[in-house]
Amino acid sequence: MNPGFLSPSQLAPLLLAATEGGDRAAVFMVVSHPDPKQLGGRVLFCGGEATGSFQDSRAHARATTLAKRAISGDLSVLPGLQTLPLEGAGEILAYLELHHPSPELVIVGAGHIAQPMCTLGALLGLRVRVLDDRPGFATRERFPEAHDLHSVDFSDPFAGVTLHPWSHLVLVTRGHRYDYECLRKVLMRSPLPGYIGMISSRRRARATFDALRQEGIEPELLLKVHTPIGLDIGAQTPAEIAVSVAAEIVHLWRGGSCRPLQETEGVLERTFGQEGP
Is the pTM of this model over 0.90? Predict the structure, then answer.
């Protein structure tokens, strides 16, 4: 195999480190080559850099362009077979793969709402991380489904915590001032989580937005914050609140009207006509 290519065993830890660090990555795997010995060779593109090489300037330049476009979200470049022309004559046929961090639920606060929220997040297939500043709260006994448990200082809650567009951040600390501080900190980061939700009353939500505007946070960022958190299902108990938040996250993924299916499907009307049974 071309010494510039990565083997599967070389690629795996590099790809894992990239996605664990919150980065998107593109991988090209050679499936057709004038030299059969090059089949299966891989090149990784991440963070604007390539690891591995096609050892052909024209093919490598074309792969670099395609990788950058795919990682940036250009829908004209999708995973699948790509043709890479070689210097002189011939071409490489390579399969393009896109990789991103695992979707996750980051729960800040380890109280009564966080426990059912953790269970529901795991059921939705999210990798759950729980953060709290109180010893004895973010424990394996209280959060058996959590992937990670972190002891943090709410003055800098995300120090050492990677957030990315596949993160779903839920702020449910023991006090509004902690929720506010965590929200302020996350809105100053880039990239933002794909979902930001903060538990709050309507009055406190308005006060939060007013205070953040006074601190110079742009309105476009505030529009990304879901507060009060969750869908309106009349939730009161911690479990019910967790269900409403989980429903809002699913709605973010899937869309939908948030109306009862009985209304949207109109089964009775379709069966019996407008007059009903």
Answer: no
